Structures are given as C-alpha cells and as structure tokens.
Amino acid sequence: MEQLLAQVAQHKLEILAAVVTTKDELEVFRVKYLGTKGLVKTIMAEMRNVAPEQKKEAGALLNAFKEFTESRFQQLLDGLGLQEQSGTADTDLSLPGYKQAIGSRHPVSIVHNKIVGIFQRLGFTVAEGPEIEDDWHNFTALNLPQNHPARDMQDTFYISHAEEGEKDWLLRTHTSSVQIREMEKGILPLRIICPGRVYRNETISARAHCFFNQVEGLYIAEEVSFADLKQTLYFFVQEMFGDKVKIRFRPSYFPFTEPSAEMDISCLICGGSGCNVCKKTGWVEILGCGMVHPAVLENCKIDSNKYTGFAFGMGIERITMLSYQVKDLRLFSENDLRFLQQFSAAT
C-alpha cells in the first residue's frame, strides 16, 4: 500500500508539471495519462496486488487520482482554449459557405400523398394496419377459405405455418386486411382508404415487384350502389390524370366483391400507340373494384340485408409510372440518386 501511495504522489507531481501549449501536446497528454493504455488505466490495475483488507482504502486513493488527472486535463484544455481565442483563428470566416443539398420526397411518396388528398376531399379517412398479418384478416374473412382456388392468385410470403387450431402468419398480400379490421369495429357508416406496403412472391420485372405500395378504399352504408363506385373512381381519375384521359370498366372476378370489375385508362406513356407498360394495347389497368361480397360483411358481423358497400384497390407504383411516364417499376426501389433527384421540383 505504501508503494502505491508513493507512486500516486510522484505521478501527481509529474502531471502538475506538464506544460501544454498546442492541440498536439494536449492530445499527447490525454493519450499518456487518460488513454486506453495510459497511466491511469495502468495504475488502476494495481488493485489486484493490494491485500483484501486494504482494497477499500486503495480504491478511494486510485479514484481520487483518476479525478485529479481528469481535472488537470480539463484545466489544460480550458487554458489552451483561451490562448487560441486570443490568437489567430484557424477558420477564415470570409470564405463562402458549403452549399447544402436540398432533399426531396420519393416519387412514390409524392403520388401517395396526392391520392390520399383526393379521397380525403370525398370524405374518406386514412386507416392503417400491421404488415405482418394472420390468415383470417388477409384471406379467410375476405371470402377465401383454406381450399379456395383464388388463393393461388396471390403468391404469399408465409412467416409461419401454424399447427391445427392456431393461426398462420404472413406478410400481407394486400391492404384489404386493414378493411377487415375496421369493419370488425362495427362503426358504420364506414368510409376509409388504406395505404401501405404489401408483399407478394412474384418475379421482379418492369411491371411487377415482390413488394409494392397499395391504396385500397372502402365505403359501407345503407343503399350504396355500383353507380356510387363508378362516380367515385371517375372523380379520382380526372383529379389524378386530367379530364382528357379515357376510362373503361371490364368485368372481372375477385372473391371479396360481387359484381367485380377492373378499371383501365388510356396509356399516358405511349398515348395509346402501344408500349411495354400497356402490353401494346394502348390501355393500362390501374385498379380493381366491386361491390363488397355479402359473405365478407357477414364475416365482420355486419347485416348484409341492411348495409351494402363498395371497395377498390390500386398499386401506387403503377399510378406513379403513369403520372411521370416511367417505363420500369424497378427504378422506384433502386435508390439511384440520379433518378430520384428528377422529382425534387414535384415535392
């Protein structure tokens, strides 16, 4: 213990005698005394050689030495700061500043906000839900029981296949699961849009990706008709693309709507002459829609004899491609700044 006391006293004198006049000398002081392999660390390691009955006294001594060294370092730092303030500044304040790059929203985010704004003007509110979903909300409640062939229409990323009596978990294939969750609350009438990212095990190409963004809409009330659906979508297309775009509805099939339809618009990229986006037809399908199937209402404990409703869903990337005449959907997920910086003016 006596040897340790002598070492500490000697090192204190050495530290007090240290003279620092530059930043480099201060850094040398810090490394020598307070660094990872510095004097303080080294002398603290002497605790293992102290007798057990003296460890308490030795610990207090070494902690005091550490605080003394840190205090001396701060004094030297403060003194050096005063010297530098009185001397010549390292920075030339007359030089021009660095130009700061201005960021912008992603084109998909720009179109997402525009779509949401259009439907909000019609009285729709935004509803959101989890991206990891159970089988009931993603499939079964939407009139797709376990053996329904329509399940093959959606290639699903399953997270876990549960044993009998338990739930399967998966990455949601559409935001219709959010509609089910909202209908289960039983608060009617219901007028919502459900934006969000969805996942499907598809081959990535210029027209498809394994993850993308959707906006789905749902309106449930008394005496809702297919005419209400058509007028809602006519308004959306005119607000989104202008009143010169041609529109057509085609009969289709979805297990959760009856009757069902797909809505096409004239291709804005090729002007109807044919391209890879419209598959040389001059028309691009932008959304699916229909009247909510009575079985879906009943699954959510809604009286299908009293209430009717319509639903629709669209991919935001598809709308973005048409809005900005982008021919390859993959560009939206590659994060190439040369591509993304083109949309700064549209933010």
Mean pLDDT: 88
Radius of gyration: 34 Å
What separation lies between the terminal Cα atoms? Answer: 71 Å
**Number of strand elements:** 10
Largest sheet: 7 strands, mixed
Coarse structural class: alpha+beta
Q: Please tally the helical runs, counting DSSP H or I stretches of 4 or more residues.
A: 11
- Beta-strand content estimate: 15-25%
CATH-assigned homologous superfamily of the largest domain = Bira Bifunctional Protein, Domain 2
Query: Mind telling me which CATH architecture of the largest domain this is?
Result: 2-Layer Sandwich
CATH T-level fold name of the largest domain? BirA Bifunctional Protein, domain 2
Quickly count the domains: 2
Anisotropy-based shape: elongated
Q: Widest sheet: strand order? A: 1-5-6-10-9-8-7
CATH class of the largest domain: Alpha Beta
Give the SSE string.
HHHHHEEHEEHEEHEEEHEHH
Helix content: 25-40%
Question: Which regions have little confidence, pLDDT < 50, spanning 5+ residues?
Answer: 82-87
